[in-house]
């Protein structure tokens, strides 16, 4: 049976989930498909094009319902929901964020990007500013997802501590910033502010709280510049910049990055 480009991309995603980017080679891909490696070049020029096609599939799945606001949905709420959907899509695939970093959209993705820019233009954004907004939000999502996926390769500090002798005694185990009782006890004397901060937050290994906090900061600032009825900026950071709940489910607005310098960014990892 003839192999199609869709077959190649699907097999590539399966290999990615199994072995990460390091395990995704054209030779292994050809073996998975039961063909010779040179046959792949009838469908893709090189591995970079293969990765771009795989990214397009991930972006299509993640942003299927987020290329434009739902009826009656504020633009800032749409942007926040879009950011969450993109993050979930990246985390669903091993090394998903690493693969997306540096990606350039393929031709089939352009209509979806045009729809997103049109939604922002309708909300009052100029095209360069709209594109910079999507790029900035995507860069934040990719960076946070990259850190989250990198953290998943580390050992569990709670499990490690439980396996150590005398693990039941507070302060007897590690002194890392891990949010555990022993970790906080070890930090308390020399680093009281760190200890207090860690004690008030979720476990250090959880990235959801960190992601929502950063997203709220971006969205609050964007909305302050573009929504007259929204938050008013009183300084560089704007009001309510601290606190993950400041923007609610999504107070995103692309105004933070103005048109200046927009030509340097290119369409990047906007996503179709």
Task: Kindly state the number of beta strands.
Answer: 0
Helix content: 40-55%
What number is the mean pLDDT? 77
What is the global morphology? flat
- Euclidean distance between termini CA atoms: 31 Å
Order of helices and strands: HHHHHHHHHHHH
Which class of secondary structure composition applies to the elements? mainly alpha
CATH topology call of the domain at 67-152 and 208-260 = Tetracycline Repressor, domain 2
CATH architecture of the domain at 67-152 and 208-260: Orthogonal Bundle
Query: What would CATH call the class of the domain at 67-152 and 208-260?
Result: Mainly Alpha
How many whole angstroms does the radius of gyration measure? 22 Å
> Spans of 5+ residues with little confidence (pLDDT < 50)?
158-175, 233-268
């Amino acid at each position: 049976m003839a192999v199609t480009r869709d077959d190649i991309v699907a097999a590539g995603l399966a290999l990615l989930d199994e072995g990460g980017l390091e395990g995704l080679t054209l030779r292994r891909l050809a073996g998975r498909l039961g063909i010779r490696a040179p046959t792949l070049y009838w469908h893709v020029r090189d591995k970079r094009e293969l990765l771009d096609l795989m990214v397009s599939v991930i972006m299509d799945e993640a942003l299927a319902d987020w290329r434009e606001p739902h009826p009656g949905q504020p633009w800032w709420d749409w942007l926040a929901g879009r950011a969450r959907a993109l993050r979930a899509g990246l985390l669903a695939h091993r090394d998903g964020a690493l693969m997306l970093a540096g990606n350039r959209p393929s031709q089939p993705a352009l209509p979806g990007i045009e729809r997103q820019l049109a939604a922002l233009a309708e909300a009052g954004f100029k095209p360069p500013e709209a594109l910079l907004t999507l790029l900035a939000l995507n860069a934040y999502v990719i960076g946070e997802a990259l850190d989250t996926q990198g953290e998943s390769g580390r050992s569990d500090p709670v499990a490690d501590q439980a396996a150590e002798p005398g693990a039941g005694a507070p302060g007897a185990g590690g002194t890392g910033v891990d949010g555990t009782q022993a970790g906080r006890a070890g930090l308390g004397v020399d680093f009281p502010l760190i200890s207090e901060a860690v004690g008030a937050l979720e476990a250090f290994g959880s990235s959801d709280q960190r992601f929502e906090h950063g997203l709220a900061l971006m969205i609050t600032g964007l909305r302050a510049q573009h929504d007259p009825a929204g938050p008013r900026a009183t300084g560089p950071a704007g009001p309510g910049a601290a606190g993950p709940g400041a923007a609610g489910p999504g107070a995103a607005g692309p105004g933070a990055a103005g048109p200046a310098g927009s030509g340097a960014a290119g369409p990047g990892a906007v996503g179709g």
